Amino acid sequence: MSLFAIADLHLSLGTDKPMDVFRGWTDYVDRLKANWERLVTDDDTVVVAGDISWAMKLEECDADFSFIHSLPGQKLFLKGNHDYWWQTKKKLDDYLADRGFDTIRILFNNAFMVEGRTVCGTRGWYYDKEGEHDIKVINREIGRLKMSYAEAKKLSDAPPIVFLHYPPVYGDVECEEIMSALSELGVKECYYGHLHGERTHQNAVIGNYKGVNFHLIACDYTKFVPVLVR
After folding, report:
1. Residue 32, phi then psi, degrees to nearest 5
2. φ/ψ of residue 216, rounded to 5
């Protein structure tokens, strides 16, 4: 039983927004499926850290969620910036139950125990924020991160593994508020997505930065292969 992670699936099986037009994304759904089925078993868990479906409304997610549900393992969904279908946790839970998508659970102001380690996290926000609105969103995301982290600590004394969609740092620019929260909480491991393209990946912060071990799991960076966490 293992824990895997990946982000930015950008599925559009029920909508007309294919990613195959972008460099490196040709036949990405088939490649993702083959890699997932090769590595992940029904006893494993995969964190999907945001930008899951291009659907605009929850009822438009059926085809994308059905595809993910059909893949091996349990899946934990985290919100990304393009997940416009995202609603309250209750509405999401009700939708999943109504559709019988019982291999999918929502990571939102809560935490899960997976293989003796706790999993927590939130979407995060831009590292290059500018306005008053951005500050409000960052403060809200920090609150959600701390709530999720607190729930993780209730489950185990082991250091939680944190998942974000946005990177807290990119190149030499960081979201100071998010980084301060990670430091305050004593986070040692953080996985994130959001960054696409070879040039962008070159500036991604991977490895130890201010005491946090960062991992980029955007699916075009991982070559559409789920990353083994534990």
Report:
1. -60, -45
2. -90, 125
- What pLDDT was estimated at residue 55? 97
> Angle, to 10 degrees, between the axis of helix 132-155 and the axis of helix 176-185?
20
Q: What digits encode the pLDDT tens for the residues 163-199?
A: 999 999 999 999 999 999 999 999 999 999 999 999 9
In whole angstroms, how far apart are CA 224 and each of 10, 88, 193, 215?
Answer: 11, 29, 12, 15
Taking a C-beta distance cutoff of 8 angstroms, is the pair 65, 104 a contact? yes
Compute the distance between CA of residue 148 and CA of residue 31 in angstroms, rounded to an integer: 32
**C-alpha 222, offset from chain centre:** 14
pLDDT for residue 116:
87
Q: Which segments of the chain have a pLDDT < 70?
A: 129
Q: What homologous superfamily does CATH list for 3-228?
A: Metallo-dependent phosphatases (3.60.21.10)
